[in-house]
Amino acid sequence: MKKATKTIGITLGVCIVAGGALFGAVQLQAHEGAMGVTKERMDAMKSFGEAVGAMSDMIKGKIAYDGARVKQGAETIKTHAGEKLIAFFPEGSMDDHTEALPAIWLDFEKFSNLAAELQINAVALEAASESQDTFMPAFIDLTNTCTACHTKFREEQED
Ligand code: HEC
């Protein structure tokens, strides 16, 4: 039991650090001008970033835990994950503004699996939103999926 708690602590630490780098800065300037499906998916991702940002503020104690807000954020992610997310990435949909990597279409199965996993995690997070204790591990699972996909399929971020 002690060991498990420690592992969660460490994972959470890593998660918060990664979360700061990943979700803290919304890169607006690079993306003005994006259009069509590229814009749609950026908007969806931005809403993911905002939802996750609020949740990590709760973990950091910047704002009080708010189960209703977590639930709402999980719902936003859930409704744009899975098939919906996959549909935002028609083959070759790249423009000057995109951070999507061509690897997406070289390994679309892996990409699709991560999109599906995100939906499963969002459903689990929604169900776990009642208390902060149940929220924590579900949040870690969710953000691990964000990171897994970004690492492989999104251009590396400098900020
Ligand atoms: C299945 C893959 C995948 C998953 C899962 C995923 N993302 Fe993304 N995300 C991408 C890709 C690809 C881009 C780049 C899109 C583009 O620029 O066209 C991106 C871009 C973003 C952006 C930048 C949006 C912008 O303004 O351009 C944010 C913020 C973001 N993701 C947050 C998240 C969060 C938070 C999660 C988890 C809750 C998540 N993403 C899950 C693939 C994914």
Classify the beta-strand content into a percent band.
under 5%
Total discrete domains: 1
Structural class of the secondary structure composition? mainly alpha
Radius of gyration: 16 Å
How do the helices and strands follow one another from N- to C-terminus? HHHHHHH
Which kinds of small molecule does this entry bind, naming each only once?
heme C
Query: Would you state the CATH class?
Result: Mainly Alpha
Helix content: over 70%
Low-confidence stretches: 17-21, 23-30
Count of strand segments: 0
- Describe the largest sheet: none
User: What is the rounded distance between the termini?
Assistant: 37 Å
CATH topology type: Four Helix Bundle (Hemerythrin (Met), subunit A)
Number of alpha- plus pi-helical segments: 7
General shape: globular
Question: What would you give as the CATH superfamily?
Answer: Cytochrome c/b562
Brief sketch in words of this structure:
By secondary structure, the protein is mainly alpha-helical.
Helices and strands, with pairings:
Elements: H1 2-23, H2 36-60, H3 67-80, H4 82-87, H5 103-106, H6 108-128, H7 132-153
Helix pairs in contact: 1-2, 1-7, 2-3, 3-6, 6-7
Bound molecules: heme C.
Heme C binds at residues 23, 26-27, 31, 38, 41-42, 45-46, 48-49, 52, 77, 85, 98-100, 111, 114-115, 118, 142, 145-146, 149-150, 153-154.
